[in-house]
User: What shape does this take?
Amino acid sequence: MKVKDPYSSFEEVCVDEVNAGCAEVSSREYFQNDDEKIKIIAGHFKEIMQTLGLDLRDDSLKETPERVAKMYVKEIFSGLNPNNKPEITTFENKYQYNKMLIEKNISLYSYCEHHFVPIIGKVHVAYISKGKVIGLSKINRLVQYYSKRPQVQERLTVQIAEAMKKATGTEDVAVLIDAVHLCVASRGIKDTNSSTITSDYSGKFINEEVKNEFLALVK
Assistant: This one.
């Protein structure tokens, strides 16, 4: 299954054999370098602050537009740049370990694409090797790469699962995300008690016994 990501490059969105729904983004905006992006975003953010009535002559505020722009490009939305996609190292499964491997409680910091406010939670990822194993830190880096962009949790869940399948060469992958959305907690309904859970199971994890083992281990 290919998940359309409106924030990815045409090449990344349409890379596999199922190209339904692919749409090319503007190459001019996409291929600007980081310095150009920072300059443009800083200018726009300065206008936003001035429109809100903030005095940019204040020592505390005058450098905020550039600080925010750098944060957007270099940090919290750095996953929009395919050059930042982690290189995945795999190894031969010399020990013939054929049970599930779980990386649990991976920290999730993303941003809701509807309001640009944080999504904060935990990601649990599991796979069963079919001959290759992945460096453990690479699982965390894949989660970070896809989370560092404006997101919806459902799409993020599937993107992580698809990336894991491609990296490990197995369909036996499970992903579970439990996250708090500040667009719900800090505005609108202002519900600070709820969280959102999404999951993706494929291969052997569709089997109820295997799935239940995974769920019990990530509790």
The longest helix spans residues 34-51. Strands lie at 90-92, 100-112, 118-128, 132-134, 150-151, 173-181, 196-201.
